[in-house]
Amino acid sequence: MSDSDGFTMPARSTPTRRNVIGAAGAVACGAALAGCGTGEPAPASVPPGVKGQVIAKVADVPVGGGTVIHKWKIVIAQPTSGVFKAFSASCPHRGCAVSRPADGLIRCPCHGSEFDATSGKCLKGPAGAPLVEFPLKVEGDGIVML
Predict the structure, then answer these.
(1) What is the pLDDT of residues 74-90, one digit of tens each?
(2) Nearest 5°: CA angle at 121, between 120 and 124?
């Protein structure tokens, strides 16, 4: 860079404030876009302290409905007789607590998102991702988190 007298300014060895802010913005945007993902469920990570625990009784989870275990923020559904599913009870949109399953749906009362009680798939937004599913098994009359 030179001025009208022909003086050449030395190159800057440190980035300008504008360059730093621009680079930070690009990194943040890239991270945000990477976080959008493909709508696939996040890896199941059972809440601390619940693994191996009986979290509900089979008799407490109605067929075609379910229940919310507030202690561990887990929703248990029984979409068909003898089939039990466990999902995060936090809506992926803004983290609101979802309601207990009814009519094959898990609903978020905050913004109206709806999820399939069999798969956790988001059927109606604004949530753009499914509920996280947790592995479980039935032992006798109890539902146990794996």
Answers:
(1) 999 999 999 999 999 99
(2) 120
Q: With CA atoms as reference, report the closest residue to 109 among 95, 123, 88, 129.
A: 95
Q: Are 42 and 87 in contact (CB under 8 A)?
A: no
Residue 120 lies in a domain: yes
pLDDT in tens, 18-46: 554 544 444 333 333 333 334 444 455 77
Token pair 């009362």 is at which residue?
109
Looking at residue 109, which CATH number applies to its domain?
2.102.10.10
Q: What is the pTM for the complete model shown?
A: 0.69
Where do we find the tokens 């009870």? 89
The length of the chain in residues reads: 146
Range of the domain at 60: 54-145
3-state helix, strand, coil split of the chain in percent (to 5) is: 15, 30, 55
